[in-house]
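Researcher: I'm preparing a figure for a lab meeting and need a structural model of a single chain. I don't have an experimental structure, so a prediction will have to do for now. The sequence is pasted below. Please return the structure as tokens so I can convert it later.
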Amino acid sequence: MTGNVLFKRRLRKEWNFQWSNLTSIVDRTVLLYGILFTAFMGALLYDSLPTIFETLNDLPINFFLFLLYQLCWFGTVRIFMEYADEYFLMQRKDVLRSIKLLSISYALLTYLVQTFLIVFLLYFVLVNIETISFSVFSLLFLFSLLRFCILTSRKLVSIYWNGWKRPFIVSFLYVGFIFVAYIIVSHNAYIIGSVFAFLIIIINLIMIIYSNSFFTDAVENEKQRLRYVQMIFHASEYVHIPASSNRTKPLLFRKSEKIFSARTKENALKELYIKYFLRNYRYPLSLFQMISVTMVAIVFLPLWMKYALLIAFFFFIKEWLSTVYDEVVTHPYLQMYESIVREVSREKVIRLFYIPATMVVGVIVFIATLLSI
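Model: Understood. Here is the structure written out token by token.
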């Protein structure tokens, strides 16, 4: 058994697994409506292209480059490793390294195609809104190198660091890469930047291939294998997926202190929602991300779109918080509460979150309005 044969089997197995997941939720009717909806939206966007380009013309080119930089952080280098390989591959280091090399090559080739599509779309937008001095191939080359540097560096971080160190180092890399990229672009040092990026990629690849990362690769492979299934479950309102955590004690309300002194049914549901929301870090993080992204977009959008985005943000954030509330009250134990109590508690408790969030975004809109006058 060679690494090439084993990799091909794993890749074919992965494709078959994902195809079976897709066919289990998409039938001919769903596919037909999806095609019709895509055709309708495509025709609508095509007719609105002059208006869209006129709106985008007010945005600086650095905004688009920063957006492209953000897209470089999506994805991961996946090694097709399984737990059952432990005893076999520990004795066959050559097969282990061959699978790593082929998996990395497949991941980079896949992301190269994605980067080409993204860069081509961005270049088409930029050409229609302003005159640019670089070609699509130079933009593709530079951001492909940047994305490969980011992907391989993140892979090394996942191998050698765990716990609180990992997000800290990733944040440091995020700031460092954007700082270096800004210096290269501002000083037109593309040749030096390309050589520097090639060296980083080669060093990262050598360290990944020769690293002892079997269990890390197996865990990441299983996570990536089931990510589409998890997305389907998260999108379903009938399937409750609690947030998993390795923490034995909650960071907030560790002794489960009372939030409301009056012990009523409404207060019990409100207190449960607040603790559920704040203890699961992905909810406050998602709320912070939505607020920050909206604030950045407001800075660059025209005046009328600022207020339109503020109104849309209000309804979106309220609906999202209501969805999180549904995750809490759908537990069978909480069905003993009357529906009227659950609805009244819903309105009162999500108000504690969406009003401050809307006020923060509203202040930014107000300041942007004063600056534009």
